[in-house]
Structure formats: C-alpha cells, structure tokens
Amino acid sequence: MRTQSQIANVRVFFRLFTTANSDLSFTQVNYPTDAGAAIPLLGRTASREIVSIPFFAEERKETRDNAGGVSMTAQQDPANVQTFDATLPGGETIRYFGALLDINSDTPRYPQSPIDNGPFPGADCVSIRNIIRGQHQCMVAKVYFEPDDPTQPGSNPATSDHLAQRNLFIIETDNPGRGATHAAQHSFDLVLPVGDKRVFTEGLAARSLAMVSSQHAAAPMVIGAVGAIGAPSNATNQVLARWYTDELVFLWNNIPRDARVELYPPSIEVDYNLFLRRMRGAPGTVHFLDDHTLRLDVEEVTYIPFLNLFGDRAAGLITVTLPDGIRAGETYSLDVMQIRPRAGIVVGGFRLTIPVRKAASLYGREARVLQVTVERIKVLDPYGPLVQGSKQVSFTAHVRSHNGGGAVTRLPASGVYTVSDDPCGSIITVNQEIFRGLAGEDLEIEIMSAAKYGESCVCHYRRKFLDVMESWVGAYRPNDEHPDPENVGDWQVWYRIERV
Predict the structure, then answer these.
(1) Hey, which of 22, 35, 186, 265 would disulfide with 316, CB 3.0 to 4.6 Å?
(2) Stated pTM of the model
(3) How do residues 239-278 score in pLDDT, each as one tens digit?
(4) What separation in angstroms does the CA of 162 have from each of 100, 149, 319?
(5) What are the sequence ranges of the domains in the chain?
C-alpha cells in the first residue's frame, strides 16, 4: 500500500462465494458488513440464499442458539487489523493478511436460509461444506478502513483496487476414455440486471409482441402488429432499450472447435435469449435444445444476452464435452465474463480450466479421498481415568496423513456427552465425521479426552495405518482382533474408514 498519511485499523475481509459467480460487484448482497463491528457477514439474496461466506484468522464465534451462540457481529479478527504508516516517496508498505479456510469442517454453522445474523436455531444449521456448491470456488479479499469504506458501490475486482479476486475452476477429464469421460461441467451463479419489469411486460403486451424462434421451430420470427416479419419496430426497440440487459461473454481460448458446449439455466426460458440475439442480427452460433438449454458453437467469442424476467439471480450449469483425439497432458480453458453494455463495464467473470489426464491417474487421486466417521464410544468405567466420576466427557479427534490432509474435530462440536452409571457401560452415539480428504502415504487417527488435549495423557486412542490403502478401508471396533487398539483402557471406540 502507498499512503500520504498514517492509516490505522486497515482490515482485509476474506469471503468465499458458494459457486462460480459471474457478477462480483460490490453490493450488500455480495459483501455485507456490520459497520459497528467492522466485520464481514454472510452474503444473502432477498430470498435468503447464501451467496458468500466470510472467513477469519480468528476462530469462528459459535452462532448456534442451542450451544450458547452469539450474533455474527460479535466475531473478532485482530490478526487482520493493521496500521499503515505514511509511505516514503517512491516506496510502499507491505503487510500480510490471511484466513483459515475451514471449508472441510462438518461442524454445523449456519442455516441454509438465514433470516438474520444469528444466533441461529441449532436444528437448522448445517456445515460450511454443505453450503458450498462445487469443488472449486471464488475467493475475494476486500480492503476496509474507516471512517468510510473506500470501496465504491457497484465496483468490482476489475475496477477497484480494494477488491482482489482469485477465481479458478479446474475440472479434469479422461483420455482416451468414452465420450462421457470427456465432459467437464461446473455450476455458476448469474446475477441478473436490475430493470423495471412492469415497463417491459406492459410494453410487450400493449404491442402484441409474439416470438417464434426459428432456431427450433424452422419459422421466421414474427413481430405482431408492430413491425415486419423478422424486424422489430422502433417502438419495440424502445421498450427493450429501457430494460437493463447484461450479457455473458464466452472467450473460447483453445477449446477445440468441435467441442460440444451446453448452457443450462434451469429457471430461464432461453427463447428470450435467442430473441434478443436475433434482434441485433447475431450469427447463428447459439442453438435451442430445450426450453432451458442452449448449445453454443465454439467460435472466437460468443455473447448471450439476459433479461431480468425470471428473478434477480439465476443458477446455471456449463458443460464442455471435449472431442475424441484429445491427449493426456493437454490443458484447455475458457473464460466467462458478465458485461453490462449500458454501463460499459465488466461486472465479473471466471475461468474454467480442463486438464486432460490418463484415467488411471484420475482414479488414483480420487481413490485416495477417504472419509473417517466415529460411530460410537463406550465408557466402561465412569470413575476411571477418562471420566473420573464427573458423569460427562468430550473428545478431540485428530487425523493426520503425510503428504495428504488433516483435521481436528471436537466430539461433540459443543457441550459434553453425558455418562451414566450403568454397570454394563455407557454407550455414547456419535455418528460424526472426523476426516474427509486426500490421504497420503499413511493415515493416523488419534482420539483423546478434550480436557487433556495437548497434555501428556495415557488414556487416549491412537492408530496408524501404513502399506496399501485398500487395507485401511473398513470398520474398526473392539474385540475384532488381537491385540485390539479399539479397547482403550476404560473405554472403547467404534469407527469406519470409507472411500468417498
């Protein structure tokens, strides 16, 4: 940063969009912030769908009401608050900011459709992993400082130096493989332009505008009562000109010309897109497949106009099926931008990258994605070293894998388990995932009392898996082998390892 005077309390807010988003404009839907606490909040649509999720260097505040949670406005993130002194001429000041991306945690955090900033009903909450759609997401970092937020409304990462975007979607395909294995697809979120829907609909009704797309009906477009066949009148153009139209622009880069590309926005009737293209004499490179699906020819560039007739936001799915003849080691890409011609701006975009790999290497990686789930724990002695007569217990599970992933999970996520005095033992039903990710050369599972986590404790479970991964998959429980690691002194553990 360069500044002529000292700036205190410079903050960086990190947020992840739940899927590819073609419009990253600075709005209260995409980037809501609590002004009093200077902390980012969940981005939500008018229908309460979560658009973006903030991340912090500090541990997340508990926001579930049944776990003593608080509002998201109580979140603190001191590591991402720094002061910038005045910059010497010709120099610059460098500071580092960061956040923990707890996207793989299965701890329930937020409802799918939150009404406010919490605390939220615990029964309605799901994990961040269950809110995110797709394997690759868009991260945006935003610079914030007081007294006034320097980011201008409507700006985006392409027009503002206070927004920085990392938006890359990588979907691998097989070679040679069958046709289905050549398909790469990813969801995206389309933010439609704001307009006066009443003007549009009443204008069309008053002029009796009829549309028949020759793309699928083998007939010319008919403009009833207001103009000649195939040529809308000036009156109709004036109605449409008052409507705020955006366009998706597809830059095909090195995608093969004989690739098959489909665009599927399920809530949009694509006749409207074709109608707008024909109004301006666009080439016939976009074809009708069904009411909600278009097929796009791969040319230098393709423009798809969108009207806000079906809601302010729309989900979409793009599918690229590469042709036969692609080779392992090749990489293809296409760029998708959303432009607002009336304003002369690019409001956002994303890139879809498609590496081609051998099936064996693709399978080899996917086959190493494992899930570990603790099923139950049985306390044999409520007065033993684990519980010590307190009638309650909690655990910490730590899973590690060299050259792979790792996770730390509290059992339960909050509170404690109640332990009874049953002389036959107290069974605790857990059924909680403690790891989901890529396993490397080994896998180590450790479960111990949460009260003694980090301390020297002989009353804990530890098992390390080596050799062939196929031998790791299965169920582990007491009394099924000798010696039996799942008999942990005065308690026992049941869990399973599965391929995802």
Answers:
(1) 265
(2) 0.57
(3) 454 456 889 999 999 999 999 999 999 988 999 899 889 8
(4) 21, 10, 33
(5) 7-166, 173-195+244-361, 367-499
